[in-house]
Specification:
This is Ubiquitin carboxyl-terminal hydrolase. The protein is of the alpha+beta class.
Length: 848
């Protein structure tokens, strides 16, 4: 076709063709509805107006919905290299036909294959194709638009350096890194800095094998900076963080480039020091020592390292790529989509969800959930290598790469958007992400039933005044049963004491540590600790109308269809660093908690009267303020630690607990969400002088104004929890502007909240440590699926590492009668599922 003919052909569509501008996101590497990419057989079609990408199965849907006709079709081919004169492949050369910013397929041998990218303009509905480049024949605008689209960077890049979406670049030193042949071998555990004996935040220099501590690297952890000093002395540029090495990669830092980087040759570099990255197993002289001594390292046992695990393929056995500390997301989503209710809600409704998706499906929760569910369950991206296919590919020049596993980049970008933690590149708590996901499911209904209802249950809380013996019963909604670790019930205390003595002796003598001994905790002891009464701090008894001792017990007012049990392994050390209790708990396959069923008000019990505490105003206002200051300075440190464990600055946590009157971590969390954008958010807590508290002091401590009008700051605190302004004002007026009593008043008057219809988009469950929705919306009452309290275990998520700020997550699921391990991209039949080392357990109800 002549140049003029091409110009005339494109004239009707010119108004719909745009040139990508700064800020436009170009999705040229992934379909919005599937995990098809230019590597896929059908390639990807990129809309020349919206810059959204679509696979072959979904391009017609976008054309019918929008009427957009012009697309840029991108396809990457894998070509077998032409043999050279000596019979081998020709030397590797830079491919001038490689212009797509894509990851290469690691399964291919780069010495035998090379990539070739192809771009075409396609005009719908006739599928008329125009090969590119075609500068002479195409209108200038079209050429400019195509060039800009092809050169556009990944849509997941951000300006913020801490964002997880900023893609790491390969280090310039990785390919030519020199490694000294000094005989250094790195043990699987017991690491410490060779200069200061620090055992946290340790980095292995990939040139000489030195193990040294870091200092405020990209993961935010601290040290004495010996790794950096070593670089300045030697110039050895690359180091890998010990404790982050998994079969899919590791955290690598370049001192020379001053940023975290990718090392495409990390497996070879680690093997130089005896670390088998694929098996997470140290080797010496090429021999495995698995048969010599038992595997006790947490990393080895949970990942079942050393065992030849059989890979699993097909529907439900699809792995997920680790995007950089995203294993917590992978583990949770594998467990979620093993549940039939979630499968039906999203994958079962996939055609309807896709047909009614908004014009930008990348920003729609239900679309991305359906896409992820289909990717995991269809088997389309988990195909076993077929011998017949391999033979056919050898006979042809083109190689068809296997699509094993999916990259949930688009899903993570959307689901973490706006969240201060999940949008970062740092490791996160899988339990917190689970609650964050449930919150999004609640806020984005799909179909007539909400799949998250299978986790919902009612908790009955019984609070008793120890002096009057009167009680108060309240109910709340929860999604997770949190079990404390009953360390005092360990059955091997003598072994633990002996191990600790040996460990200290070995450390003093600089010998290798002894074989690890874990505390063995009976699961029944954890259940017992859950059911025991807890003291209520600063309990005000309405029966005595004074502060008194109070205790609270929790029971199940209903049992969920699926019970999620979290083992509270994480605690704080003396240095305020979150640490994990390395324990073994005999978690049962079958669980009966019917004995924890709530019973309600019992005969002979007398309820506490619904009376608010009186406000005592001293004669001297200064004395009143002085009393307030003395009382308020008593900050609940346990709440501070709970918040700090979630990653918030310590000073911000202290201010949150202080300004919410020690009402607990749940209320303080809401204060953090409402104030985290303020410039002094992380500044130290400053107590205002007496002369400065006329307004702020009244709002914080609940003092009574002359007109009894509630102070705006305390109204804002209640609103930040998801309640309407009029309800907050009404509660404060009824309780003389006392924040604590106002909250109790709201919870004891749910009928008023139903009338106020609080906005669901403000009631974020992540604003509550336990995701407890304390008051239900709507007139139908709580959505629960009550039944028997007998359950069977079908999955668990395990954490490896010392704290929530680091480590790795793995998921085990029971499918078709056998256990399967999901370790990011690796999906294998499990031989020895480590059920005693889990962090989050998933049970389903046994039909009665």
């Amino acid at each position: 076709m002549a140049a003029g003919d091409l110009g005339e052909l494109l004239v009707p569509y010119m108004p719909t063709i745009r040139v990508p501008k700064s800020g436009d996101r170009v999705y040229k590497t992934e379909c919005a509805f599937s995990y098809d990419s230019p590597d896929s057989e059908g390639g990807v079609y990129v809309c020349m107006n919206t810059f959204l990408g679509f696979g072959r199965e979904h391009i017609e849907r976008h054309y019918r919905k929008t009427g957009q006709c012009v697309y840029l079709h991108l396809k990457r081919h894998v070509i077998e290299k032409v043999p050279g004169a000596s019979g081998g492949a020709l030397p590797k050369r830079r491919n001038a036909k490689l212009f797509l910013d894509l990851e290469t397929n690691g399964d291919l041998n780069s010495d035998d294959f090379e990539y070739e990218d192809e771009a075409k303009l396609v005009i719908f509905p006739d599928h008329y194709e125009i090969s590119l480049p075609n500068i002479e024949e195409l209108p200038a605008l079209v050429t400019i638009a195509c060039d800009a689209l092809l050169s556009a960077k990944s849509p997941y890049r951000k300006q913020e350096p801490d964002s997880w979406e900023e893609e790491l670049q390969a280090s310039k030193h990785a390919k030519t890194l020199v490694q000294l042949d000094n005989g250094v071998r790195i043990p699987p555990s017991g690491w410490k800095c060779s200069k200061c004996d620090l055992r946290e935040n340790l980095w292995l220099n990939l040139t000489d094998g030195s193990v040294l501590c870091g200092k405020w690297f990209f993961d935010g952890s601290g040290g004495n900076g010996h790794a950096m000093e070593h670089y300045k002395e030697t110039g050895y540029p690359l180091a890998v963080k010990l404790g982050t090495i998994t079969p899919d990669g590791a955290d690598v830092y370049s001192f020379d480039e001053e940023e975290p980087v990718l090392d495409p040759h990390i497996a070879k570099h680690l093997a130089h020091f005896g670390i088998d990255m694929l098996q997470m197993q140290v080797t010496e002289n090429g021999l495995r020592d698995n048969d010599i001594k038992p595997r006790v390292s947490e990393w080895e046992v949970i990942q079942e390292a050393g065992a030849k695990l059989k890979p699993m393929y097909g529907p439900g056995y699809t792995g997920m790529k680790n995007l950089g500390n995203s294993c917590y997301l992978n583990a949770v989503m594998q467990a979620i989509f093993s549940i039939p209710e979630f499968q039906r809600a999203y994958v079962g409704n996939l055609p309807r969800i896709f047909d009614y998706s908004p014009l930008d499906p990348t920003q729609d929760f239900n679309t991305q959930m359906a896409k992820l569910g289909h990717g995991l369950l269809s088997g389309q991206y988990s195909k076993p290598p077929m011998k017949s296919e391999l033979i056919e590919q050898v006979m042809k020049e083109e190689h068809k790469p296997q699509h094993n596993g999916i990259s949930p980049r688009m899903f993570k970008a959307f689901i973490s958007k706006g969240h201060p933690e999940f949008s970062s590149n740092r490791q996160q708590d899988a339990q917190e992400f689970f609650l964050h996901l449930i919150n999004l499911v609640e806020r984005n209904p799909v179909g007539s039933e909400n799949p998250s209802d299978v986790f919902r249950f009612l908790v009955e809380e019984r609070t008793q005044c120890c002096q009057s013996r009167k009680v108060r019963y309240t109910e709340r909604v929860d999604y997770i049963m949190q079990l404390p670790v009953a360390m005092e019930a360990a059955t091997n205390k003598d072994e633990l004491i002996a191990y600790e003595l040996k460990r200290r002796e070995a450390e003093a003598a600089r010998r290798p540590p002894p074989e690890l001994v874990r505390a063995k905790i009976p699961f029944s002891a954890c259940l017992q600790a859950f059911s025991e009464p807890n003291n209520v701090e600063d309990f005000w008894s309405s029966a005595l109308q004074a502060k008194s001792a109070g205790v609270k017990t929790s029971r199940f007012a209903s049992f969920p269809e699926y019970l999620v049990v979290q083992i509270k392994k994480f605690t704080f050390g003396l240095d305020w660093i979150p640490k994990k209790l390395d324990v073994s708990i005999d978690v049962p396959d079958f669980l009966d908690i019917n004995h924890l069923r709530a019973r309600g008000l019992q005969p002979g019990e007398e309820e506490l009267p619904d009376i608010a505490p009186p406000i005592i105003i001293p004669d001297d206002p200064k004395d009143r303020m002085t009393n307030h200051f003395v009382e308020s300075l008593d900050i609940d440190e346990s709440s501070v630690m709970q918040l700090a464990e979630m990653g918030f600055p310590l000073e911000a946590c202290r201010k949150a607990v202080y300004y919410t009157g020690n009402l607990g971590a749940e209320v303080a969390f809401n204060w953090i969400i409402a104030h985290m954008e303020e410039p002094d958010f992380a500044e130290p807590l400053v107590i205002p002088a007496f002369g400065e508290v006329a307004s702020s002091g009244a709002s914080v401590f609940g003092a009574v104004g002359l007109d009894n009008q509630p102070p705006e700051e305390i109204v804002a605190i209640i609103i930040s929890m998801g309640f309407q302004r009029n309800l907050a004002i009404q509660a404060l007026k009824a309780t003389n502007n006392n924040l604590e009593r106002a909250m109790e008043w709201i919870f004891s008057h749910p009928e008023l909240e139903e009338e106020s219809e609080p906005a669901l988009d403000m009631m974020d469950m992540e604003n509550n440590v336990n995701a407890n929705i304390l008051a239900e919306t709507g007139l139908e009452g709580p959505r629960i699926k009550d039944g028997s309290g007998r359950y069977e275990l079908f999955g668990f998520i395990s954490h490896m590492g010392t704290s929530t700020m680091s480590g790795h997550y793995v998921c085990h699921l029971k499918k078709e009668g056998r256990w399967v391990i999901y370790n990011d991209l690796r999906v294998c039949a499990s031989e020895r599922p480590p059920k005693d080392l889990g962090y989050i357990y998933f049970y389903h109800r046994i039909p009665s």
